[in-house]
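Quick start: read one record
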Amino acid sequence: MQRILAAIGQFIRSSLVVIGLVGLLSLSSLIISQASYAGNTNVPNFRADQLNPSTAEKQSVETREQAYNNATRVAKDPDALEQEYERNLESYEEQQPNSGIIEGAKQLMEKVTGND
């Protein structure tokens, strides 16, 4: 009978030790996660951003809306689509003059043949 009571007592003590260790582990992980959130000032406050959009965001939205309206207008008219393509191609060529493998090969051929 004493052995049974001793075994039950040992089981209860070991159960309490395990429960205590699990509790400490949970508490420490909770403290660590809260500390990491408290020290991070780069986490945006999404609710505040939604309530008070900045003027830059408003302008960005207006610019996107204008671009969308322009694109839908151009897409409806085939002639306007061709003109828009030509305008975009010209602006690209202004930004990227003589870029590409073919232009480089032409320049190299001119240099090699002496037609420089």
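Residues 1-35 form one domain.
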